[in-house]
Design a protein that fits this description.
It is built from 9 helices and 16 strands. By secondary structure, it is an alpha+beta fold. Strands 2-3-13-9-16-8-5 form a 7-stranded antiparallel beta sheet, with helices on one face. Strands 1-12-11-14 form a 4-stranded mixed beta sheet, with no helix packed on it. Strands 4-6-7 form a 3-stranded mixed beta sheet. Strand 11 and strand 12 form a beta hairpin. Helix 1 packs antiparallel against helix 3 and helix 5 crosses helix 8. The longest helix is centred in the first third of the chain and has 50 residues. It is globular, with a radius of gyration of 42 Å.
Length: 360
């Protein structure tokens, strides 16, 4: 170690002092020999002082020692620098790897006309209890499905107008608002109100909603139910509409409450135990009506995206095999309907109806 060599150097200094005293007895002989050589050669060169020669010897002996110590220090410093550099580089690469988004593959893009596209996935164990209780309905195979022609563009446009008319009387302070025609729940500020009671008090309920709105809503949700029943081999009368089923409106406004934070990865069956199948009907177009806001299935190898498109239906089994999130909307407004289904009749909900005064 360099520090050990420095100690050795100090010992050498003590020895050097002893050597100087001993060498003083040799001065006369050395001087005489030097004079003799000078006289014999006839050189005019200046004689060196004996002490200078002795000092040169001492320096020549000390130089390799000190040089070796200095070289060792430089070598150790270089090793420390290299080690620190590699450590920092490793940490940077790990952070970059952790925060780099997984690769993304489209499942359905906005410019495609998808008659039907199915992506099978391995079922999770989330349905173990349901399989025991609801053998005819619970998922025995799992997947995600996209269909563009199951709901007509005209039906989707009418549903969009229903959503806009209802959401006009509410709206979250953040970027996500919902309207639930079943319960009447409407986002307003940082809370929810009953839109039916609110409109009844204002005397506007019949000017905002009409009977044909609810008839259309019932028709479309039934069409989606039949599509899911057909895909998974479920008797239609064993699959039930369940809560929550709602319109959603998303913008790029900053979140104010947890209800506005739609972009977190989640599993529907963990959030709602009764969910078995989840569906979405999109009421606006990705890229033209809004940017961001794609639906993302989170997979180990690569995430799969579904671009929202007017009239596009996407449905999937609700377990952890289909964990997902929605990208943050960066501009415009995104509209959709979430329609949820269960195998448990006890958690079934009826199709909504235009409420009368006695019901409000």
């Amino acid at each position: 170690m360099p520090s050990h060599k420095r100690k050795g150097g100090s010992g050498a200094s003590g020895d050097t002092g002893k050597t100087t005293a001993e060498n003083s007895t040799q001065k006369t002989g050395e001087s005489a020999d030097a004079d003799h050589k000078h006289d014999k050669s006839g050189s005019r060169g200046k004689r060196r002082h004996p002490k200078s020669k002795d000092n040169e010897k001492t320096k020549s002996e000390a130089t390799p020692e000190s040089t070796q110590g200095s070289s060792g220090s430089r070598h150790l410093s270089a090793r420390h620098i290299a080690f620190r550099f590699l450590s920092i580089l490793t940490i940077v690469l790990l952070i970059q790897w952790y925060y780099t988004p997984a690769s993304v593959k489209p499942l359905a893009e906005v410019d495609e006309d998808v008659v039907k596209r199915t992506m099978p996935v391995e079922c999770s164990k989330d349905f173990a209890e349901d399989i025991k209780k609801f053998k005819e309905c619970a998922p025995k195979r799992c997947s995600r499905v996209v269909m563009d022609q199951h709901i007509s563009a005209e039906e989707a446009k009418k549903l969009l107008q229903i959503a806009k008319r209802g959401l006009k009387y509410g709206g979250s302070n953040g970027g996500a608002s919902i309207l639930d025609l079943h319960s009447g729940a409407l986002s307003k500020g940082n809370k929810f109100i009953d839109i039916y009671k609110y409109l009844e008090e204002e005397g506007k309920i019949n000017s905002v909603f009409r009977k044909e709105d609810f008839d259309l809503y019932r028709t479309v949700s039934h069409k989606i139910q039949l599509a899911i029943s057909g895909e998974y081999g479920i008797p239609p009368n064993k699959l039930y509409l369940t809560h929550p089923t709602f319109f959603s409106r998303m913008t790029n406004k900053p979140a104010k409450t947890i209800h506005d934070e739609y972009w977190h990865v989640h599993i529907d069956k963990e959030t709602y135990k009764t969910f078995d199948y989840t569906s979405l009907l999109y009421l606006s177009d990705y890229g033209s009506d809004f940017t961001g806001g794609r639906f993302v299935f989170v997979d180990k190898d690569a995430n799969r995206t579904v671009d929202p498109k007017l009239g596009r239906v996407s449905f999937f089994t609700s377990g952890s095999e289909n964990s997902h999130h929605v990208e943050k909307v960066t501009s415009g407004t995104r509209y959709a309907i979430t329609v949820s289904f269960t195998c448990d009749k006890e958690h079934a909900i009826k199709a909504p109806k235009l409420p009368t005064k006695s019901q409000t």
